[in-house]
Amino acid sequence: MVKNSIWTVVFSIVAALLQSVLLYRLKIYGAVPDLSLGVMVFSAYLNGTMSGQITGFFSGLFYDFLSASPMGLFTFVRTIIGALGGLLRGMFFLDKVVLPMLLCASATVAKALLLFGLHFLFTEIVPPYPSLSSPVFWMELLLNTITAPFLFGFLKLFGPLLISEERR
Fold this sequence. Notes:
This protein has 168 residues and is mainly α. The protein is built from seven helices and no strands. It is globular and about 45 Å long. The protein starts with a helix and ends in a 6-residue tail after the last helix.
């Protein structure tokens, strides 16, 4: 499990760099797909809660260093989402299209709700996240949902590195 978690964190950091450097220039309506969130959801669903929390913690920590947000904000949000994704482990058959889309869409909505709630509680500290009525949120949701099957298919190519022995 340790090896899988380390590799998943590496993939998540590479995805975060890819989306913040390369995809940021291609944003549509101010949104880019959150590939790092997809990597975390993939790992959490296939490897369980602990892997989701570890990946969420370290990818969130990396995001905290990349952003101007308060330190620990994305670490907290992604750790919660990783834990929730891990709770779904083995509950559904992982098909190639529908379940990845549902998992990534759910994770995007959970991220928005958590950030909205934290902004509501700590207005002065936590920056506002685009509201559920914002086109930026809906475009990010659409992009995350559309890219999910391709991202999961790509990540399955690295199964020996990312998926624990008993799940393969």
